[in-house]
Amino acid sequence: MGYALKETKYRFRAWTKDGKWDTGSLTTDKNITIHEGSNVFHYGQGLFEGLKAYKQKNGKIVLFRPDMNFIRINQGLDRLVAPRLPEKLFFEAITEVVKANKDDVPEYGKGQSLYIRPFVIGQGMNLGVKPSDDYLYSVFCAPVGTYFKGGLSALEFITTDYDRAATNGTGQVKVAGNYAASLYPRHLAKDAGYAGVIYLDPATHSKIDEVGAANFFAVTHDNVVVTPKSSSILPSITRKSILYLAEHYLGLKTEERECFIDNISEFKEAGACGTAAIITPIKAITHKGLRYQFGDGEVGPTIKKLYDLLVGIYYGDVEAPEGWIKEINID
Ligand SMILES: *Cc1c(COP(=O)(O)O)cnc(C)c1O
């Protein structure tokens, strides 16, 4: 996610008591003191979200589609048998944190933003493998730079024989353990000089699933924007938005379907997408020793257009579809 530029002063914490969330409050304490027997330490009952606040030209501070993060965190909590977050608490925590740290929201025009990290963990003494009795919901934030220091450039990726998630596992939710499972394949790819890994579908290893902690999308030779259909990928809000922009702003056809790695040459452009990655163009994918390059290896025209639209919407320079941008009232 680019680089964290600095730490911020305020974070928000809410705790459950008897299965019910309290109202929560801001704190300046960066440390959390919880019991050593907490579920999150041993059995990974924890999950997170990621979204950004952007400062627009007119000085407004906005969030991009936070309603989708709200839906997704509760889907994750259901999967972890943890109590759902009430809508009011979810948004209040984010709004309060952005307001309290408003001086750390980067200025318009630098390609920077305030990355916001909500998370929920199961906490309190719990030695058996069962859901926690108690939970913490917290939100902290950090200003982050652009992913690419030198502007948009295409990167090299390699497929891996490892899986980040199982076919009917927890790949669809932002559960902590998925990312622990991804560290080793990531390490191998980095060591070999690649920007990251391409995960294949865990059942057959024949179809593209994801790009590290970002979703995959590609453009066919006849300009159809394609993204994988799979039960083991995280449903990216950025991806959903890109498909919408391709269809409604660029007039392109879109498809959510299988992307066979052996048929990779059907694509002339490819990219990774996510809140952190925004759009990362993929230069080439190496699979079983063979390197396939997309187009001339430079950033393709459709990816460039989608990037400009998406970033333009974040910063208010392109008109957003209804309901995508939520302003935070600072005063
Ligand atoms: C968060 C995440 C994404 C991107 O999702 P966005 O909603 O676009 O930020 C993609 N893949 C994985 C595995 C993720 O954790």
User: Any ligands, ions or cofactors bound here, and which?
Assistant: pyridoxal-5'-phosphate
Quote the beta fraction: 25-35%
- What number is the mean pLDDT? 95
Main sheet record: 9 strands, antiparallel
* Assembly level: single chain
Brief summary:
With 331 residues, the protein is of the alpha+beta class.
Q: Topology of this protein?
A:
Blueprint: E1 11-17, E2 20-21, E3 25-27, H1 39-42, E4 46-48, E5 51-55, E6 61-64, H2 66-79, H3 87-100, E7 113-123, E8 134-144, E9 155-159, H4 176-191, E10 196-200, E11 208-211, E12 214-220, E13 225-227, H5 237-248, E14 254-256, E15 267-274, E16 278-287, E17 290-293, H6 301-314, E18 325-328
Bound molecules: pyridoxal-5'-phosphate.
Question: Can you give keywords for this protein?
Answer:
331 residues, alpha+beta, binds pyridoxal-5'-phosphate, globular, 30% strand, 22% helix, six-stranded mixed barrel, nine-stranded antiparallel sheet, single chain
Overview of this protein structure:
It is built from six helices and 18 strands. Strands 1, 2, 3, 4, 5, 6, 7, 8 and 18 form a nine-stranded antiparallel β-sheet that branches. The chain has 331 residues and is α+β, with helices and mostly antiparallel strands. The structure holds pyridoxal-5'-phosphate. Pyridoxal-5'-phosphate (PLP) binds next to strand 12 and helix 5.
